[in-house]
Amino acid sequence: TRMPEAKIAPSMLSSDFANLAVEAKRMVKNGADWLHLDVMDGHFVPNLTMGAPIISCLRKHTDAFFGRPLIVIWRLRGTDCHMMVAKPEQWVDDIAKAGGEMYTFHIEATQEPVALIKQIHAAGMKAGVAIKPKTPAEVVIGEVGELADMVLVMTVEPGFGGQRFMAECMPKVELLRSKYPHLDIEVDGGLSLETIDASAEAGANVIVAGTGVFKAEDPSQVIGTFREKVNTAQAKIASAAAKQ
Questions:
Q1: Is 11 one of the annotated binding-site residues?
Q2: What are the binding positions for a divalent metal cation in this chain (predicted)?
């Protein structure tokens, strides 16, 4: 199995919501691998954002922009749906129908993470598992980590964009990377040119960035720098592991 590759996923939470389709196109043009879509229900987090109808519309628009068959685009440009919702089981089919590719639920929001991962896979999506800053990495180590396609380590409290990056979450990333050398490990919250080194060196390969990319003078340069730093760090981690 090859080492995990960098995937840069701009967070649409930091985009101009009145121009979502234009913003999505701009990010893909600037080199985004995935689009990170924050679904908040006002229960699990104290904020409301978007749901399946908006994701569905966005998918149609993105298809129109590229003029290529839908499936090709979305295999290249994944919809990374971060479900900050109280009942993640309830929305699996809706998000699958809307064109979600990765369904990332919070472990804190479910009693049955393994059953939920299987439900997500049965709906034809990849399953991600997110942990909040105060949740230990140990809760996803074992069957959950083995079945999941991705683990998301939140580096801010979920619910709002523009928060300060919590470097104290990095030991969790390191632990998960040492246990699962080939797993996609995502970090989300406060990622910028100032905080990318800590995340990359800890072993994260999927980088969610909101204001750090959307407000940048040159988003393509930021995305390119993130990619280079992650891939360099992954090569180092792989070579260190091979020497052990």
A1: yes
A2: 36, 38, 82, 188
**What token pair was written down for 166?**
């919590």
The annotation status of 161 as a binding-site residue, yes or no, is: yes
For residue 114, is pLDDT > 50?
Answer: yes
| Structure-block tokens of residue 209 | 């960035």
46-93 pLDDT tens trace: 888 888 778 787 777 655 444 334 443 444 457 899 999 999 999 999
What is the pTM for the complete model shown?
0.91
The residues pairing with 105 across neighbouring beta strands, listed in sequence order, are 83, 129
CA 149 from chain centre, in angstroms, equals 11
159 is in an annotated binding site: yes
> CA angle at residue 90 from 85 to 95, to 5 degrees?
80
| Residue (of 218, 145, 216, 157) closest to 185 by Cα position | 145
CA distances from 28 to 63, 103, 104, 212, 235 (A): 12, 20, 21, 15, 25
Cα-based angle 155, 33, 201 (whole degrees, multiple of 5): 45
> pLDDT tens for residues 168-227?
999 999 999 999 999 999 999 999 999 999 999 999 999 999 999 999 999 999 999 999
Distance CA 19, CA 25 (A): 10
Burial class (CB in 10 A: 0-12, 13-18, 19+), 72: exposed
H helical segments located in 30-78: 52-66, 70-76
